[in-house]
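Dear Dr. H.,

I hope your travels went smoothly. While you were away I took the liberty of generating a structure for the chain from your last submission, since the lab meeting agenda had it listed for discussion. I wanted you to have the full record in hand beforehand rather than looking at slides cold. The sequence, exactly as received, is reproduced here:
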Amino acid sequence: MSAPKEMKLTMVFEDGSKKEVTYTLSPLRSGDNPHQAGYVGEPGGSYTEVIEGRGMGFTNHIDLNAYAVAVEISKTMTFLKDKRTEVVVINKHTNPAVYAARTKQVDALTAALSTDKKSPFGGVMATSSKLTRDTAQFLVEKNKEARFVLDVLAAPGFESNCVDLLSDVMRNLRIVDVSSLNNWDKIHSGVFGYNMKWTIGNKPVITEVDKTSFFNTKYGMEVLSKRKPTDSEMKDAHLAWIGAKAIQSNSFAFCRDAVLLAQCGGQTNREDSAKFANERALEFEVSLKGSAAATDSFIFDRANIDMLHNMGVSTVVHPTRKLLTTGSLKPDEDILKVVNEYDMVMIRPYLIGSDGQEKPWRVFRHL
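The corresponding predicted structure, in token form, is as follows:
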């Protein structure tokens, strides 16, 4: 089969209007696997590869959603009037392996790397702001001392000499400039605001891009427990919820002091995600005591709360069944009783519609 060189998409809307976009396709180093071909489209106005290294593959481009997570956390911290707005995220296989927010970029990187000694290796790193020389120097030294490597580094611009400094030492590193993505809509534009995949039989499956976040919508964080969260616990609840949103379902994210302590997703049940995240924390001697744990799904029963309490979790963030199912809310009441027995905090995030009414807020990610 001849290699594709161009792709055109046309979408016709209910009002009869039509939108079209044409992508010029370039071959990638590999597709999802080395035996699969891969291509990347360029419609203009997107990110650019400054240093290609040995060439980016399909998953490298997909993992650039680390930049969306970094920006979302940074904007959320600004919204919460917290000065820790410098964020570093390292993605691995489409999930944030580590992230942290600090007042200095290099401190965010060191805090993030302190929680996981394996996963960030060979990952895709993104910074919420221009890459600093301090951060570049840290990566160079870590490469020399511990042979630490990244596949891709994405930043909205670079301080002077950063690119040369990194490329001289980390020779296979791909460096990507995302400075053209200067607002939330550009980061999450999708195709006319939609994301698409194809299922069996060549059927397209389409969903709206999820652009909803704390800083651009009306929302509530209902405290269901008797104990109210401290200011730091509430901020960690926000960041854990972003983690649950960014990690593939069923997700669990554990945050404390604006650092992702442990995470797991992609399991067939959220209990396993929590267990595996805890195992990783134990392996790297990271304490989950006092952390906020967020999941994109429901906490089912008291056994889940017992498990989280034994891990050291102080704050639980989940959507609860309110507004989402009909019938009795008794399961949530039973869970809340256990939360109060342990003097933990339970928080339910929800959206507020244009009519002022509450709307359920779920953050499943299956794409």
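Two observations you may find useful: Residues 1-44 form one domain. The chain has three domains: 1-44, 59-184, 219-360.

With kind regards,
E. W.
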